[in-house]
Task: inverse folding
């Protein structure tokens, strides 16, 4: 496959996944803000910005991190490269560049997503409702994934697309899990209390893991178990281990002529997750662990880039 | 200007033989159903993204080429004659291209004035003496035909122009047919319409047949200027239909006079390039130095015979409007036959007596720039304002040899859906002729329709639309 085609496929998939996860994060933030348990106004919305790494860009252009402002910034702001608007736009532009390589159903579904995107031309998120809008984004993402799964040949085209999905998802799940670090409870006594319970519950729901938690643990929600589920459980489709298992397998299947270092690094990260223990992770600090993980994922992405998209051999 | 020939209705109002089946169906269909199908078609075209970008408009602004649901129907015997004429014409054009880049027999025989060729900016001196596979230059030719009154009885097909560089539009032909079959399957059950959807197979076979010598299983690619080009949809569409890679200049490089593309599994040799970028932008080392679209060293690899470009470099010399007048003579010279398809009578403004006549009669003529295309830079006398005519007159006087003139033909019309209902609109026809080891084509081609009342300009950039083209089978 052409290097440039692989590049577009990978970023098309990353952008779709990103739109979905941004919607998931917005939804969880919105739900948490309704609980009004934080000790500062707008703290949940602030946390949303900092886990996305977009707070500096936001502060440069918005006076205050109110719900309306953060929503506008994260959903419709054309100047914010991470907004849902731009994620869908980028996905569609990348698809357009390789529309000959994806199935026509895939292209049509993505093109239609862009053409029909609500609030694209005007309006406020509140006009439609945060949750309804986030549902729409998730539905479209589900549809696109289903179309890819149901129509595409299982060749490298499909693999680069999946690779983009899982790299982005690993990154996003780690960020969502880290949100609690950014939201402090009013007092340490609250830990284990109702507010704490609802916040961890919201995190689980945001990655569609609430029911899974119940099924697996049959018990009350504790931070350690939530982290174990989202980091180490291989059978939870959005967990870090599940994502890295996919990435590892895909990279081995693609196996280009200069993939040695990429496979080594990916195998290492995957191994650490597969054989990791939640007690060790907590002993060193969850936030520290997740920050470290995000760095490793970033490096992996950079290595995929130099190995497959920017081949310099002439 | 005479009254136009209507493809569906005879002058007494009777439905012509070839439209009987369609007319019956139309009578039996309710207007509501037709209206619904028309809007379905529009939604579907948007969703599929069969759009084109218009120069000068914001990027991301994509327009649909309007598609009209009344087909243009051609009887089998008419197509047969047209196809024979097209084969003959394209054979002569390829023979001409080979000749003028080699022995120049036609110039030596005095059948075409040598300075018209050798001093023409479209003549590529770099191509002189270069051998190309099968001696084919115009692998894909789009020949624009119009039907107009022949002055006696009935109406004849005339060649309006030859497009031998990168003729476009074939994707609209294919998508138009797909749309008609999706909307009105019952129409195709009623009568035998010759299929066109094997065009991509013919094209790929044709491209493979002109691979460099010694290459058994050639790698063929489509070269596009990129996704913001107005015809990008078509480039992607054809690559997908043929199952080959769509590349831009950055995907390829040249080493040891051999062309490679960069892939995730390392570099891979490229043998045949169906290029949809102009000569000037192919290779910054050989042509336009500022081009970012091409591949440095490509022309050198081409000269060495290690890659085939389709179409060849330098075909512009054969579709130049100043050369057009000589095509009938080429057919006589190379094929030893009389032309089956006629040219439109043409005044060459480089000739003093033609120039004098044309300046006298500007309000009734169509004047075209010799190097122009896409319906830009032309004057349609009968519909132009006095001011426009006088401005054009000044341009002609300043550089007469840059123009040709033709009578304003009453292009045939075909019933077309417009705001006020169904009304006759002028049409043309562009069949696509493929030349390689043999000449192939699918029956029909792309019918373009001028949607504005009375307009004779069918180009999509000037508000034209398209229709499905049916060749009936006997």
Result:
């Amino acid at each position: 496959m052409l290097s440039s085609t692989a590049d577009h496929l990978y970023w098309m998939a990353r952008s779709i996944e990103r739109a979905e996860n941004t919607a998931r994060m917005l939804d969880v933030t919105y739900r948490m803000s309704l609980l009004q348990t934080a000790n500062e106004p707008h703290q949940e919305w602030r946390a949303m910005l900092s886990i996305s790494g977009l707070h500096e860009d936001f502060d440069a252009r918005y006076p205050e991190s109110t719900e309306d402002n953060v929503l506008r910034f994260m959903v419709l702001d054309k100047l914010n490269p991470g907004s849902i608007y731009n994620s869908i736009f980028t996905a569609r532009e990348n698809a357009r560049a390789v529309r000959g390589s994806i199935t026509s159903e895939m292209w049509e579904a993505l093109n239609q997503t862009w053409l029909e995107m609500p609030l694209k031309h005007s309006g406020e998120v509140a006009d439609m409702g945060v949750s309804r809008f986030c549902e729409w984004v998730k539905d479209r993402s589900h549809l696109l994934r289903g179309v890819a799964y149901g129509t595409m040949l299982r060749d490298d085209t499909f693999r680069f697309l999946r690779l983009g999905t899982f790299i982005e998802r690993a990154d996003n799940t780690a960020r969502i899990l880290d949100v609690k670090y950014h939201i402090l409870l009013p007092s340490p006594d609250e830990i284990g209390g109702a507010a704490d319970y609802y916040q961890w519950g919201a995190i689980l729901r945001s990655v569609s893991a609430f029911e899974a938690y119940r099924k697996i643990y049959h018990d009350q929600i504790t931070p350690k178990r939530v982290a174990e589920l989202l980091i180490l459980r291989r059978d939870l489709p959005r967990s870090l281990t599940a994502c890295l298992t996919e990435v590892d397998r895909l990279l081995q299947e693609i196996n280009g002529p200069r993939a040695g270092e990429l496979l080594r690094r990916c195998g290492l990260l995957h191994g650490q997750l597969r054989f990791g223990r939640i007690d060790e992770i907590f002993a060193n600090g969850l936030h520290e662990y997740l920050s470290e993980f995000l760095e490793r994922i970033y490096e992996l992405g950079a290595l995929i880039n130099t190995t497959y998209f920017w081949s310099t051999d002439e | 200007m005479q009254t136009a020939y209507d493809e569906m209705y005879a002058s007494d109002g009777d439905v012509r033989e070839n439209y009987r089946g369609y007319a019956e169906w139309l009578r039996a269909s309710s207007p509501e159903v037709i209206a619904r199908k028309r809007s379905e078609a529009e939604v579907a075209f948007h969703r599929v993204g069969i759009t084109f970008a218009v120069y000068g408009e914001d990027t991301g602004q994509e327009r649909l080429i309007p598609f009209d649901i009344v087909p243009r129907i051609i009887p089998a015997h008419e197509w047969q004659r047209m196809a024979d004429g097209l084969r003959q014409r394209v054979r002569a054009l390829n023979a001409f291209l080979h000749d003028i880049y080699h022995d120049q027999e036609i110039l030596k025989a005095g059948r075409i004035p040598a300075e018209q060729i050798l001093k023409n900016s479209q003549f590529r001196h770099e191509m002189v003496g270069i051998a190309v596979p099968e001696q084919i230059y115009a692998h894909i030719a789009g020949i624009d035909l119009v039907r107009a009154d022949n002055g006696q009885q009935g109406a004849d097909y005339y060649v309006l122009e030859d497009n031998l560089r990168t003729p476009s539009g074939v994707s609209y032909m294919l998508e138009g047919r797909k749309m008609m079959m999706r909307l009105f399957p019952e129409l195709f059950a009623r009568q035998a319409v010759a299929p066109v959807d094997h065009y991509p197979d013919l094209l790929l076979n044709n491209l493979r047949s002109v691979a460099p010598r010694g290459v058994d299983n050639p790698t063929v690619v489509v070269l596009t200027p990129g996704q913001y080009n107005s015809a990008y949809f078509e480039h992607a569409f054809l690559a997908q239909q043929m199952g080959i890679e769509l590349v831009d200049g950055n995907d390829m490089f040249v080493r040891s006079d051999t062309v490679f593309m960069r892939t995730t599994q390392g570099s891979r040799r490229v043998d045949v390039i169906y290029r949809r970028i102009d000569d000037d932008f192919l290779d910054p080392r050989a042509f336009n130095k500022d081009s970012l679209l091409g591949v440095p060293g490509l022309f050198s690899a081409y000269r060495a015979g290690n890659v085939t470009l389709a179409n060849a470099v330098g075909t512009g010399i054969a579709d130049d409007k100043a050369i057009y007048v000589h095509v009938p003579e080429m057919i006589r010279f190379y094929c030893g036959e009389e032309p089956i398809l006629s040219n439109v009578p043409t005044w060459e403004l480089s000739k003093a007596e033609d120039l004098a006549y044309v300046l006298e009669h500007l309000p009734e003529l169509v004047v075209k720039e010799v190097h122009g295309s896409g319906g830009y830079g032309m004057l349609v006398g009968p519909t132009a304002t006095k001011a426009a005519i006088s401005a054009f007159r000044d341009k002609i006087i300043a550089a007469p040899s840059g123009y040709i003139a033709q009578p304003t033909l009453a292009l045939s019309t075909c019933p077309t859906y417009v705001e006020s209902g169904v009304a006759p609109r002028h049409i043309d026809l562009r069949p696509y002729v493929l030349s390689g080891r043999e000449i192939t084509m699918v029956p029909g081609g792309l019918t373009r329709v001028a949607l504005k009342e009375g307009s004779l300009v069918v180009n999509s950039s000037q508000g034209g639309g398209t229709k499905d083209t049916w060749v009936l089978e006997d």
